[in-house]
UniProtKB/TrEMBL annotation:
It comes from Streptomyces xiangluensis. This is Sensor histidine kinase. The keyword Ubl conjugation does not apply. Gene3D superfamilies: Histidine kinase-like ATPase, C-terminal domain. GO terms for molecular function: kinase activity. Keywords: Kinase, Membrane, Transferase, Transmembrane, Transmembrane helix, Two-component regulatory system. The chain crosses the membrane at residues 10-27, 33-53, 403-422, 437-458, 470-489, 519-539, 545-566. PANTHER family: NITRATE/NITRITE SENSOR PROTEIN NARX-RELATED, OXYGEN SENSOR HISTIDINE KINASE NREB. The lineage of its organism: Bacteria, Bacillati, Actinomycetota, Actinomycetes, Kitasatosporales. InterPro entries: HATPase_C_sf, Sensor_HK_TwoCompSys.
Length: 777
């Protein structure tokens, strides 16, 4: 906004100086023209240098000196040119200059005020030199200072609205940024959990299921899992050949090997985000065939379709009912379906008991683009929201509305101050000049009513209704006609004409939200009415025409330039500001997403460092043997912990019970018999506390081989989770705590453990702090 105002001020002042100087020279005596040119030409050149400085910055002192030189040279030309035309010319140039200085030097108000004071001194000096022995006229001087003050006040009003727009846009951007960061973190979390499910969790679960296998594949698999856990989860945007990826789908080793019959119509070039999602989903589906289908063969097909690709994996195994699979099982919902939804694709699983299973993945560019309008895109590996265009439009609309409101308030302020501080004095001082005087008074009252009506709407933050606007505009034109035809033609645009320079400001705040051509048409009609009044009474002299021309240019030209400036602010500066704000916000959002993803990844990896990572390292390098019972027990504990982690993000009414059931399912999958009992009415428990309450249960269930009993007891102020194992394997594992899994220092979870023979009883309890003021239901 400041840059726009500076350019506007320099261009307007330079235009007025050039036109005013030309009209002043035309109206001067021939003998005075050379001396006048020696003063006015340097002033015009100084304006040219000032225009040059808009694109090539010059020192502050030089710019201020150039502006001051324009004032001094123009003021000294007044006694040289002589006559009323020179007075009007100098008054117009200096008046416009001190007004525009408040915009040119908007960020340096002291410099603008100093130039305004210099302009007042120049006017006084010009009057003294042109009329020796006569005191300078104070009325034009006071009017000029009032106009300079109004210019500064208008700038402050518009700046306040611009800052309000900045604050509102920043607040909205911050809200969007938080939502986008949260969405990106959720998407990354889903991918992380899916990766964890397909790698470390599956490996540790297989190790925990017992001996008697060919474990030659395990070291390489453990090292690959460790590499996957240490990598930053996320999607890429480069193109890949899906056919080549599918050719790398692992078939497994030994008894778990599945022979794939592939029919792939390649190449299939798609973005690597969807490509990796399909690859990982197929890998998980092949693993499910080995585990559950009861067959060792499957068919993998892939082909292009429109602008996307379709992949199918089918087997002739025992089949199952997809609806009966609990949501806590992540093989289908997370690794297959969830992954594809995250990249804008789709996946489906079709199966019935005894008829085999068909898994299908679909991805289409158009479908992805459509879904992306409601989801999240990814750039340079960082998910980001795609609704940039809609957000940019909203920001531009916000900025434009605030700038428009500020401009209307500024125009209304100028109208009221000019009418009651300047025009009212003119009206009362020259009552005898008007014919009839009552018409001029009625016109003044009419303008006051228009201003009051506009103020009633604007001060309440509302736009003037169209019907009220056009009636008010008709009233303003009527005032223009009244002022033109009830004043002697030779007095038009002079000191007696209070309405000529006033009606334009009233029209401006009424038409500010429309295109500038509407305001220009009004000014044309206004000037036409006054010109008609002049020519109907006879042709004016050259001097009178020059004086009227200078007044018209300085008054109506200035008002039109303000309308052009407003259009520039609303349709040029506002979109540019919106674009800059959107780009800055996008950069901040991406930086924030990247930082949070890095931090989340470090926290996740740190949580696994104490227990999961050592197991994978030992298995990957042969330090730990899957034939060792203690190693298998530790793997069972970690697999149970991971399953609880997978259930942590489920949207359920009782998260604690949901996570416990996930742990129980892993134990039952190992062949255990587990009973789960719940007493009391459940309540809300923070996620950090849930982790500590369930971790001892996960440890015991992971080390139990036959039967266990889990009990949850709710009371109004506390919750207790206990587990009893009849044959829990001993060793250091039964005493493992939850410190490695994110224990909060202030969680206040107490853990009690009792061992009797082969039985182990562990209870974890948590009491809600009394200071919270909220009790469990």
């Amino acid at each position: 906004m400041n840059l726009t105002l500076e350019r506007y001020g320099v261009w307007l002042r330079s235009t007025v100086v050039c036109l005013g100087s030309a009209l002043g020279v035309v109206s001067a005596d021939v003998a005075e023209i050379p001396l006048a040119m020696s003063l006015l030409v340097p002033a015009v050149l100084a304006c040219g240098v000032r225009l040059y400085a808009l694109r090539h910055p010059l020192p502050f002192a030089l710019l201020w000196t150039l502006d001051a030189a324009v004032l001094v040279l123009t003021g000294l030309s007044q006694p040289v040119l002589g006559g009323d035309g020179a007075d009007v010319m100098v008054e117009a140039i200096v008046g416009i200059s001190v007004i525009t200085f408040q915009h040119e030097w908007a960020t340096r108000p002291v410099a603008g005020a100093a130039l305004a004071a210099l302009g007042a001194v120049v006017c006084v000096l010009g009057d003294v030199l042109s009329s020796p022995g006569h005191s300078p006229e104070l009325v034009p001087l006071v009017r000029m200072l009032i106009e300079a003050g109004l210019s500064r006040a208008a700038y402050l009003i518009v700046r306040a609205r611009a800052r309000a727009a900045d604050r509102s846009a920043a607040a909205r951007a911050a809200s969007r940024r938080e939502a986008e960061v949260a969405a990106a973190r959720r998407a990354t979390e889903r991918e992380y959990l899916a990766t964890l499910h397909d790698t470390a969790s599956a490996t540790l679960l297989m190790v925990s299921q017992g001996d008697g296998r060919d474990w030659s594949w395990l070291p390489l698999r453990a090292r690959q899992d460790l590499e996957a856990l240490s990598a930053m989860p996320g999607f890429e945007t480069e193109s890949v050949d899906l056919a080549e990826l599918l050719g790398c789908v692992p078939e497994g080793e030994g008894q778990a090997r599945v022979q794939l019959k592939t029919h792939i119509d390649g190449p299939l070039a798609i973005p690597s985000g969807p490509g990796l999602a399909i690859f990982n989903g197929v890998r998980e589906a092949v693993t499910n065939v080995a585990r559950h289908a009861g067959v060792r063969e499957a068919e993998l097909r892939a082909w292009a379709e429109e602008d996307g690709a379709v992949v199918e994996l089918s087997d002739a195994g025992r089949g199952f009912d997809p609806q009966s699979v609990p949501a806590r099982r992540r093989g289908i919902s997370g690794s297959i379906i969830g992954r594809m939804h995250a990249v804008g694709g789709s996946a489906s699983v079709t199966s019935c008991p005894g008829t085999g299973t068909l898994v299908q993945w679909r991805w289409h560019g158009r479908a992805r683009a459509s879904q992306a309008a409601d989801g999240a895109q990814v750039t340079d590996g960082v998910p980001r929201p795609p609704r940039a265009q809609a957000q940019h439009t909203a920001v531009v609309r916000l900025i434009r509305g605030q700038l428009l409101y500020g401009a209307q308030l500024a125009a209304l302020l100028i109208s009221l101050v000019a009418q009651f501080a300047i025009s009212l004095r003119q009206l009362t001082a020259y009552q005898g000049v008007y014919h009839p005087a009552w018409a001029q008074t009625a016109a003044f009252v009419c303008l006051a009513a228009v201003a009051a009506t506009g103020a009633a709407y604007l001060l309440r933050g509302r736009q003037v209704p169209p019907r009220v606007r056009w009636w008010s505009l008709g009233a303003v034109l009527t005032v223009s006609a009244t002022g033109a035809f009830t004043l002697p033609p030779e007095r038009l645009t002079g000191a007696e004409d209070w309405a000529f320079g006033l009606v334009g400001w009233h029209a401006l705040f009424l038409l500010a939200d429309l295109r500038v051509r509407v305001f220009a048409a009004f000014l044309g009609a206004h000037i036409g009415l006054n010109a008609a009044a002049v020519f109907l009474s006879g042709a004016p002299t050259a001097a009178e025409s020059a004086a009227m021309g200078i007044s018209t240019v300085s008054i109506c030209g200035f008002q039109l330039s303000v309308g052009v400036l407003l259009t520039r602010l609303l349709h040029g500066t506002a979109p540019a500001a919106g674009t800059a704000a959107a780009q800055e916000e996008e950069l901040r959002t991406r930086e924030r997403i990247h930082e949070d993803m890095q931090r989340d990844h470090k926290e996740r990896y740190r949580a696994l460092t104490a227990t999961t990572v050592p197991l994978l390292v030992g298995l990957g390098h042969g330090v730990l043997s899957p034939h060792d019972e203690e190693v298998r027990l530790r793997c069972g504990v970690e697999a149970t912990r991971m399953r609880r982690l997978f259930a942590e993000g489920d949207a359920v009414s009782d998260p604690l019970l949901n996570e416990l059931r996930a742990c129980v399912e892993v134990a039952e999958h190992q062949g255990m018999t587990v009973s789960l009992a719940v007493r009391g009415q459940s309540g809300e428990v923070p996620v950090e506390v849930r982790r500590e309450l369930i971790d001892p249960v996960a440890v015991i269930l992971g080390r139990t081989r036959s039967t266990a009993r889990v009990t949850v007891v709710w009371t109004p102020r506390a919750v207790r989770v206990s587990v009893v194992s009849e044959d829990c394997a001993g060793g250091r594992g039964t005493g493992e705590g939850a410190h490695a899994h994110g224990r909060a220092a202030d969680a206040k979870v107490t853990v009690a453990r009792t061992t009797r023979g082969g039985s182990v009883w562990v209870e974890a309890g948590w009491r809600r702090p009394a200071a919270s003021g909220v009790e469990l239901a």
